[in-house]
Amino acid sequence: MKMVSKHRKRSLIAKRQAGFTLLELMVVAAILSLLVALVAPNILGRSDDAKVAVAKTQLRNIVSALDLYKLDNGQYPSTAQGLQALVNRPTGYPEARNWKQGGYLSSVPQDPWGFDFLYISPSAQGEYELVTLGADGRDGGEADASDISSRDL
């Protein structure tokens, strides 16, 4: 029986423990791939839901600013004056006699998909309507592409 020195024995053990085998790496890669396949669709689908929630929050904020505008000035801005009347003192009719210095919003936001909100005053349904057309930027649609109106809040 051949005697292996302690030093040589340690170096052999160290070589065996120095890295991962190809099989170990493949198992880890397979597990990671499985996790990504299971988790990614859930995470990716949530961004659409989040944008819809942000759009509704923005609509509520603009509605609140419009209500304050009406309290100060007696009526909502016209379609021609638009949502800019909440940022800068509007000209034209109806006159904004008690317009609040500094405005009602710091700026008019775009919806989460990068489109302008549609503002119509007066609308066929009442005093005004505020709408975002959703992800597709077109009338109608389904899921995150559906229209969201201030009337639906």
From TrEMBL:
Keywords: Cell inner membrane, Cell membrane, Membrane, Methylation, Transmembrane, Transmembrane helix. GO terms for cellular component: plasma membrane; type II protein secretion system complex. SUPFAM superfamilies: Pili subunits. The keyword Cell membrane applies. PROSITE patterns: PROKAR_NTER_METHYL. GO terms for biological process: protein secretion by the type II secretion system. The chain crosses the membrane at residues 20-40. It comes from Marinomonas gallaica. The gene is xcpT. Gene3D superfamilies: Glycoprotein, Type 4 Pilin. It comes from the Bacteria. PANTHER family: GENERAL SECRETION PATHWAY PROTEIN G, TYPE II SECRETION SYSTEM CORE PROTEIN G. This is Type II secretion system core protein G. Belongs to the GSP G family. Residues 42-150 form the Type II secretion system protein GspG C-terminal domain. It is a single-pass membrane protein. It is found in: Cell inner membrane.
